[in-house]
């Protein structure tokens, strides 16, 4: 868990218990008034006003009455779950079980999620060794049908392995079919993969993927808007898809029928203005009909290789095999200075060797910090251009 569980962080965590993700009314309140104040208002059953967007409870005539009615219904919807809200101590206990909380403004919070506006997550629950924000900076979402064909599974696995070998993280939904092939391909290439679930990060769903999810947590990160213990429902998969699309710079649909949930993810990517790609299939295959729709009607890019994918995701003038960002002499230049670092991040930076490499456990001992904090700070330092991975662990990045 990043930082201390103060009132605002507890409020963010609490909102994930009280409301389903994507509630724009609640998201707007949290944005305008803060999560702690919003939680206090829900507990009191009194909501003085709405977000600064102009949707206020006070209003004249039928429009004002309709808004007041909608607000009362929302309040009832949130209050019904107050009884299952855990204490701050119980939520802090999840950290000791290997689960952490990422909130807007945290170093690990992916800024791309802010493109969702008031529908962005209230907070994210994470389980895994990788830094979410850092790995999402250079990533691709690979999605498709659960009932994948042998062709679709092969393509998804090969593409995922190839883009992972090029330094891209692979984001998917942890489901059977294309999702599983994408995660497995990335892991086989020694890459990082991110699973965005429609249930708690501690819930192995589907049950047959318990081992796969543990492997993802060991080499990547598992993400959920739902708190620990929550189970999946059909609607939650559709709500979850907007996060997959928002986290990645671009989305690739490998195989999808016309009614596949992957098209829902693709639609979110299109609406967010993200690059959208699709793999063509046999014209006789219903499992590729959705991909053909993306190419024909949604201006999706037809891709036939991992090189096509990285070319689509790379900024103009940036080689596809080179990480985007400021560069100097072929090496990534520092994005921020040392004087802008917080104390824990600066302590980790001071513990890094200039030559050779050092593993996170050794860095933790030298820095006097716990391993989870060190791993998160290493991700922040890498994103800032101050640290880099090497064969023996981590070291300072030289300009």
Task: Describe the fold and architecture.
This protein is an alpha/beta fold. It folds into three domains: 7-92, no CATH class; 129-313, Rossmann fold, CATH 3.40.50; 327-396, Orthogonal Bundle (Arc Repressor Mutant, subunit A). Helices cover 44% and strands 12% of the residues. It has 16 helices and 13 strands. It has helices at residues 7-18, 24-33, 35-44, 61-79, 88-96, 132-137, 150-165, 178-188, 210-219, 234-247, 261-271, 289-297, 306-313, 343-351, 360-367, 371-383; strands at 99-102, 124-128, 139-143, 169-172, 193-196, 221-224, 251-253, 276-278, 301-302, 327-328, 331-332, 387-390, 393-396. The strands form three sheets. The chain has a nine-stranded mixed sheet, with helices on both faces. Strands 10-11 form a two-stranded antiparallel ribbon. A two-stranded antiparallel sheet has the order 12-13. Helix 8 links the parallel strand 4 (169-172) and strand 5. The longest helix has 19 residues, at 61-79. The protein is globular, with a radius of gyration of 22 Å. The two termini are 31 Å apart.
Q: Number of domains in the coordinates?
A: 3
Q: Structural class, judged by helices and strands?
A: alpha/beta
- Count of extended strands: 13
Q: Averaging pLDDT over every residue, what do you get?
A: 86
Strand content: 5-15%
Give the strand order, joined by hyphens, for the main sheet: 1-2-6-5-4-3-7-8-9
Rg (C-alpha, Å): 22 Å
Which architecture of the largest domain per CATH?
3-Layer(aba) Sandwich
The topology string of helices and strands comes to HHHHHEEHEHEHEHEHEHEHEHEEHHHEE
The span between the termini is 31 Å
Fold-level CATH name of the largest domain: Rossmann fold
Note the main sheet: 9 strands, mixed
- How helix-rich are the residues, as a percent range? 40-55%
What top-tier CATH class of the largest domain fits best?
Answer: Alpha Beta
Shape: globular
Instruction: Count the DSSP helices.
Output: 16
Poorly predicted sequence stretches spanning 5 or more consecutive residues: 50-60, 316-335
